[in-house]
Write a structure and sequence with these properties.
The structure holds 2 protein chains of 2 kinds. Chain A contains 7 helices and no strands. By secondary structure, chain A is mainly α. In chain B, helix 11 packs antiparallel against helix 12. Classes of the chains: A mainly alpha, B mainly alpha.
């Protein structure tokens, strides 16, 4: 499916927001959260650029499933290190093992449902962390209300991930054309929610 | 009658500009111009004189556009047999060779003259860039050896070196490092291109890395040169004193370049090759913009 000028503009805005967050948004954060957020927004930025340059065909690559795991895993790791420091090392271990598990099960010719199961568990846990942690923090008064936007970004990334995962699994929830039409806007909304959420966290 | 004559002259001028503009390869000229401006700003930020900046932009544009036109004038026989370039104004006869030669020489002379007037050192570096591009790369080596791209790369590194030399008033290690970054970025740009248009270059009998050493060696060369380019830009950024935020972004963009270069070695495809070619241009432009902050 051909990428439209509007799609390119939305993706460019997504990339610029991600770049802004890398430069300004994480200034002053501790090392590990800063690295984790840099990885997450960096993957988002490069993915946006490649979509602009190569079009939606780039999503047909089998490596997309692996690369798209990096965004929620590193975002969730950053959040846990920043707000639940006592679980930081444990969560980092989960993120590394989860990423390796997704990579290995995708790289090997496994005929069972194991790759989908692994992907579901890893994505699910990371997605829940991004969605729930900010909302719980806001509800318990430990963060400013604006921080809840990060949770909304988490919900949006979950929707995008589900749409793409089911499409790649051959059981699309919506048609390929509709998913690709929605994707640039969804990516922009998600990135805007994350950037605003972090900016309004304190 | 006078109004009609004036209107006719304006229409004539507009059509000439429309014909001449493609001769300058505006995107390539714009990218090289951005490296020159970034080189200057890397030296002068935050103190900057707009008249110097404007003079730098105009003189570099004239010199780069002039050398590009001279390059296209000399290569018009190659362009006419290549599918990708046979529709260019010189190759298809819409602009005569003499007209293009005159235009190229005038723009080059104006650019170098202006550069020398602004600063002899700056003028010398701009002249060196033009000399390497037109004489060494285009006339002497391009049709003889695939290694001509090294000289093309050296000339490509001159605008950023010139910009920094103009800003500082002397040459320094950072300027040479920045020129090296462009030199090693050039293979990523040119070799992906020569793989994409392999048949065109073969038809024109131009030796390229893919035709002499094969695709796998070419891809490995691209990967290695991308690593060196990214490291050089990163090192220059640190030595210039770029803020951490901008360095982080530069590291992310460099990681994208390296990932695509590695992918082109281990999972080669036309799509990855074309993606790397396009991304390399975006990368260089973005790196230059970051250098300006």
């Amino acid at each position: 499916m051909k990428i439209s000028p509007l799609d390119r503009i939305l993706l460019l805005l997504t990339g610029l927001l991600a770049a802004y967050h890398i430069v300004v948004g994480i200034e002053g954060f501790a090392s590990l959260p800063a690295i984790a957020y840099t990885i997450a927004f960096g993957v988002l930025l490069i993915a946006g650029l490649l979509l602009i340059l190569l079009g939606f065909d780039v999503l047909d690559s089998p490596i997309i499933v692996i690369v798209s795991t990096i965004i929620p895993l590193s975002l969730a790791t950053g959040l846990v290190w920043q707000y639940l420091a006592s679980f930081g090392t444990l969560y980092l271990g989960f993120a590394i093992l989860g990423f390796l598990a997704v990579t290995i099960t995708r790289a090997l010719p496994i005929k069972t449902k194991l790759p989908v199961l692994v992907l579901g568990i890893v994505h699910g846990l990371a997605g829940l962390t991004i969605f729930l942690l900010p909302i719980i923090w806001v509800l318990t008064g430990r963060a400013a209300p604006g921080f809840a936007l990060v949770g909304i970004g988490g919900a949006l990334i979950g929707i995008g991930g589900l749409l793409l995962s089911f499409l790649k699994a051959g059981k699309p929830l919506l048609s390929r054309a509709v998913i690709f039409r929605l994707l640039p806007g969804l990516l922009l909304l998600m990135t805007a929610a994350f950037v605003a959420g972090f900016a309004f966290a304190s | 009658m006078t109004a009609l004559a004036a209107q006719s002259k304006i229409v004539n001028l507009k059509s000439k500009i429309r014909l001449y503009w493609p001769l300058t390869k505006s995107l390539q000229t714009g990218l090289l111009l951005s490296t020159g401006l970034a080189g200057y700003m890397s030296a002068r930020c935050p103190v900057m004189h707009w008249y110097d900046f404007l003079g730098l932009g105009v003189s570099l544009f004239l010199a780069i556009a002039g050398s590009t036109i001279l390059n296209m004038w000399y290569d018009r026989d190659i362009d006419s047999v290549m599918n990708r370039t046979h529709h260019r104004p010189l190759a298809d006869g819409r602009v005569s060779p003499n007209e293009a030669l005159r235009l190229g020489l005038i723009l080059s002379a104006l650019g170098i003259g202006m550069a020398v007037a602004m600063s002899p050192l700056y003028g010398l570096v701009v002249f060196a860039g033009l000399f390497f591009d037109v004489v060494v790369y285009t006339i002497w080596l391009k049709r003889r050896t695939c290694w001509s791209i090294v000289w093309g790369g050296i000339s490509g590194g001159m605008p950023i070196l010139a910009g920094r030399a103009f800003g500082l008033g002397h040459m320094d290690g950072i300027g040479i490092l920045l020129a090296l970054a462009v030199l090693f970025w050039i293979p990523t740009h040119i070799l992906t291109f020569s793989m994409r248009y392999f048949d065109d270059y073969r038809a024109a009998k131009i030796p390229t890395f893919p035709s002499v050493y094969g695709f796998p060696v070419t891809r490995a060369t691209i990967a290695v040169s991308s690593v060196i380019a990214a490291l050089s830009i990163g090192a220059a950024g640190i030595m210039i004193g770029m803020e951490w935020g901008y360095l982080r972004l530069l590291a992310v963009l460099s990681a994208g370049l390296l990932a695509l270069a590695v992918a082109s070695v281990f999972r080669p495809s036309e799509r990855v090759n074309f993606g790397l070619f396009k991304y390399a241009s975006v990368y260089m432009l973005a790196a230059m913009i970051l250098m300006m902050f």
